[in-house]
Amino acid sequence: MICDANGVPLAVRLTGGNFNDMRELAPMLEALPPIRGKVGRPASLPSEVYADGGYDSRANRALLRARKIRHRIARRNQHNSGLGTKRWVVEQTIALLHWFRRLRIRWEIRDDIHEAFLKLACSLICWRRLRPALR
């Protein structure tokens, strides 16, 4: 899951339970819609990415450098990376997904149905987060 600084989910993908996270960074960046900037400026990718130790690899760091995205990726097996002050937003959004009973424990056999529920839950979280800003 990729979230913005307010906890609004921007992109989400469903993977297997024992799937390595470091292989998912490139597809997640591809799934991310372009972010609009000021009027007259082209849409772009995010300027920074914060990630936990599951995404720590030379390939991911090189990928982010090639796209000119600053990265703060925690090192594997290293504590006190300082990312807890930023990563809590993603953890909070994942906790919000657990409010939806169908996502807490996966009961569906077919992954497309589970992914549909996941995307529906993300859209509801987006709506709830953005609703106060629309008033």
Automatic annotation (TrEMBL):
Which Pfam families does the record cross-reference, listed alphabetically?
DDE_Tnp_1
PANTHER family noted in UniProt: BLR1914 PROTEIN, PHP DOMAIN PROTEIN
Q: Where is the Transposase IS4-like domain?
A: 2-125
Superkingdom of this entry's organism? Bacteria
Q: Which NCBIfam families match?
A: transpos_IS5_3 (NF033580)
Name of the protein in its database record:
Transposase IS4-like domain-containing protein
Q: Which organism is it from?
A: Streptomyces virginiae (Streptomyces cinnamonensis)
